[in-house]
Amino acid sequence: MTGTVVIGSQFGDEGKGKVTDFYGKNTDLVVRYQGGNNAGHTVVIGDQVLKFHLLPSGVAQGKRILIGAGVVLDPRVLKKEVEEFKEKVDLGIDPRTHIIMPWHNLEDEGREDSRGKTKIGTTKRGIGPAYADKAQRVGIRFEDLVDKNRLAEKIRDIFPVKKAILEKVYDLKLPFNENSVLEEYSKLGELFRPMLSDVSLEVCTALDDEKRVLFEGAQGTFLDNDFGTYPFVTSSHPISGGVSTGVGMPLNKINRIIGIVKAYTTRVGFGPFPTELNDEIGTHLVETGKEFGTTTGRKRRVGWLDLPMMKTSMRLNGFSEIAITKLDVLSGLEKVKVCTSYNVGDKKIDLFPYSNKGLENAVANYKEFDGFTITGKEKNYSDLDENAKKYLDFIEKEIGAPIKLVSIGPGREETVLK
Ligand code: GDP
Ligand code: IMO
Ligand code: MG
Questions:
Q1: Per-residue DSSP letters for 12-77?
Q2: What are the binding positions for IMP in this chain (predicted)?
Q3: Domain extents for the chain?
Q4: Which atom in ligand 2 lies closest to the alpha carbon of residue 128?
Q5: Is 41 annotated in some ligand binding site?
Q6: Global pTM?
Q7: pLDDT exceeding 90 applies to what percent of the chain?
């Protein structure tokens, strides 16, 4: 039994797409289990750049891919992505998966625009409102989308409430009506009906049959709805525990948890960021690392690697190993810093706190390393610059999980194993 999970250890965009593709070669199934098309996962093969928002990155290796019940699925986006990669798509969708309806995008927009100071900076993809409807038990599921009568019934129930909220609370104009939504979405349902699969059953059976399954997390640990920097979080559970509820699978089917750690930190959207750099080094990291959002194109905020965050991530996820990404982006800097603790008020702390309170004024304490050079041509771990190895050794020891993979460029081949 080989159930492997790929987890974003930070605020998302750690390089989950690249690592999923790398390990995807030796796997049978690749499964998304939470989040939706707020994600943007990149796979680079030679001069081809593939971006996945909803489809698992396993497409790039031509594997069977599955979307589990914990995902929120926008069928308009799915149609586009399936058309883009059509000859390579062998997809199964769980009937319990909730559907992002067009009113969810508007609700997301309306709520964000009315929030003022507490704006989250969401991707406006309707993620929060779709999960809210699921929790309120008024959501539309994939099993409803593929059955026109059920869909009509559901839309009839929900539409008047959504219309009232959007028009009266958010003062928005609706570019659709009840009939146009039914017309469009029942067609999408028909298109995707052949893909219906009980993903919980398919995955558990595959694992029992000694197949290898790779679970591709989206977002990152500190965007977790409970354990992230609430309210500046997403509405799902990107931590490793999310895989069990997102697929419908017992915890003991997972035997490998890979934490993806970017060699520095980035964040898109608002919320605390104790090691954020607003200086020329920050600008250098944005430019060298091409730190612009894969989904929204927004410039990512950047900062040094944060070990209190990483140790907390280790506690929340139980990484059995670490994959370090974007080490090459630090190449050429005179000094590389890593945060070892913060001063919050008169307290020194070395774990990420449970509350944002005081975090905006946290002062990070750093350990400094001599700079190093990464060419991207290194083939083995032993080829890496000695100073880079010192940096990695320190990170490994502090986090408490072995580094097994180091990514030294966006390309599939720009990867060394330890
Ligand atoms: P994900 O959301 O975790 O899958 O990450 P994204 O794809 O949103 O962002 C990671 C970005 O960094 C993408 O543009 C990748 O192609 C790129 N990338 C991944 N690994 C490396 C690396 O080791 N070095 C460099 N320079 N870029 C990388
Ligand atoms: P991947 O899978 C980085 C952020 C948004 C915002 C917050 C809430 O590519 O790592 P949402 O639209 O989910 O309600 O937005 O979460 N966010 C991400 N940041 N990478 C992602 O996905 C993200 N998905 C959501 O920027 O701050
Ligand atoms: Mg991304």
A1: S-SSHHHHHHHHHTT-SEEEE-SB-TT--EEEEETTEEEEESSS-GGGGGT-EEEE-TTBEE-HHH
A2: 13-16, 38-41, 123, 137, 219, 234, 298
A3: 98-194, 261-418
A4: 14
A5: yes
A6: 0.98
A7: 94
